[in-house]
Amino acid sequence: MKLQTKFEEEVLITSDVELMKGMYTRKRVLRGWSEDFIDEDTGEVVSIERHEIVMDRGILIDNSNISILQFHLAAGDLESVELSNQKRDGIFYSSMGSIWSVTASINGKNKNIYLYANSPDMALAIAKDFIEQQYPGGFGISSLKEMAMMHLLTKLSQETDGELKFYKIEVEIENEAGSYNRIYIVRATDAENAKALIDAYVISENNKLETPVEELHLTLLSASTVPCEAMIDFDFCNKYFEADKEK
């Protein structure tokens, strides 16, 4: 069978088994029913919805499977079945989230924007949302790159007459339980200023804990400037994570 794109997909939602033959289930086929039980605390009758998988997605509807669907339709377990002319049994899962660098062409210049996202699609959507509000005129996106695990420090402010640059800083954080390494992207005048900002941030976050660690010591392991136009705050990006969960 020749591979087709989504643009050529034909979707059918039907309860007519004669139309189903030769097609594929587009979604999991679930039979549903209600069960009543008595709440022991209130004595009220409470109904709960139950579901069971009848057929997975991407299943060819042959004579055998038509019989199965016909049985559940007749029993009232199913109202209809969503079908496709294409076998699509792959399921996309987004990651937990990481840092992405999005390169945008703004006013003829390539600019890198760092943000939190769980997929290329989300990174693209967040970057477009941000750029549309921050830069007038036309723009384009030329590349997206998932970065190593790091933290964007976007809410730090300081008064300085010096030139601020974006620094990638790796530090070792030691406490009584042991040590671990962290990488931060921070805007600062130099590497020492960046480390001082990270020190203040780590101590502030530690003090918010229910049981703060008594002793913390940070050691600067590496520092380098990074080509970055802007960092998008996590609160902004998190709106996209929340919307993704609701899908």
Distance between the termini: 31 Å
* Estimated share of beta-strand residues: 35-45%
Total discrete domains: 3
- Element-level helix/strand string: EHEEEHEEEHEEEEHEEH
Note the total helix count: 5
* Main sheet summary: 4 strands, mixed
The main sheet orders its strands as 8-6-7-13
Give me the Rg, rounded: 27 Å
Count of strand segments: 13
Content-based structural category: alpha+beta
Query: What share of the residues lie within helices?
Result: 10-25%
**pLDDT under 50 segments (min length 5)?**
none
Mean pLDDT: 90
Description:
This protein is of the alpha+beta class and 247 residues long. It is 25% helix and 37% strand. It is built from five helices and 13 strands. The protein has helices at 17-20, 63-75, 120-134, 191-207, 234-245, and strands spanning 11-14, 24-25, 29-38, 45-55, 81-84, 98-106, 109-117, 139-146, 151-152, 165-175, 178-188, 217-225, 230-231. The longest helix is centred in the C-terminal third of the chain and has 17 residues, at 191-207. The chain is elongated and about 75 Å long.
